[in-house]
Amino acid sequence: MSCRLEGLDTVTVKVGSGSEAKVWKLPMNILKHVSPYFRAALSPPWSESATGTIELHDDDPVAFRLFLRWLFNWTLGGSDKPPKEALPAVEPMASLHAWILGDKLLCPRFQDYAMAHLWYNFDTEKREDAAVIGQAYRNTLAGSGLRRWAANECLEFIEEPNLRLDKDDERVQLMDEIDGLAVDVVKLRMLHRGSAKTMTPFLLVSSHSDYISGP
Length: 215
Hints:
Elements: E1 4-5, E2 8-15, E3 22-27, H1 28-34, H2 36-41, H3 47-51, E4 53-56, H4 61-75, H5 92-105, H6 108-121, H7 130-138, H8 145-159, H9 170-177, H10 181-191
Parallel strand pairs: 2-4
Antiparallel strand pairs: 1-2, 2-3
C-alpha cells in the first residue's frame, strides 16, 4: 500500500539506477493529475498501484528534479511559464533528458519548461554541446519540437559569420553521421531564407516558444 505523509496518499518514485539513483515520496493525486503516465501506472491492475512504488530506472534524477521544480514551483502556483530570470542554470544535457522524460510522462507543458531551459542555457559555440544536439535528434521523431531545435542549432552554427567551419568539428560530423540531419538543416535554410523571423541570416526561430506545444 502507499505510504502516508501529512495526511496525503504518497507514492515512492525511484529514478535512475545504481549509486546514482534517487528516491522521492510524492503526493499520489498530484502526480496522477499532471501525468497520464502516473495516472495509468497508479491505477489497477498495474502492480505500482498496490505497492505504491514506481521505478524509473532509465531516467535521469537531475531531469526528474527539474520536473519537480516545474510541478511544485510553477504548475501548482498557477503558471507553468516562468520568465527567463526565474529559470535556474541547468546543463543542456539535463534539460534534454528532462524533455525526453516529459515525453515519457506525457506532460507537454513540462516539455515546454525543459525546452525553455535548453534554449536559454545552450551555447552554440561550445564544442562539447554537440553531444546534446546528437542525442536530441537521435531520440526524437520527425516533426518533433526537439528535433527541429537540433536542426536549427546546426543551422545557426554553420551560418554564424564569425565562426570558421572545420570538417573535424563535432557539429559538422553530426551532419555527416546522422541520417536526415543534414537534409533537415538544408530544408530549414531554404524554407526560412529571408524570413522576417530571423535573428541571424537564416536562423529559424526567435525564442523557445517556437518549439512549444501551444497555448
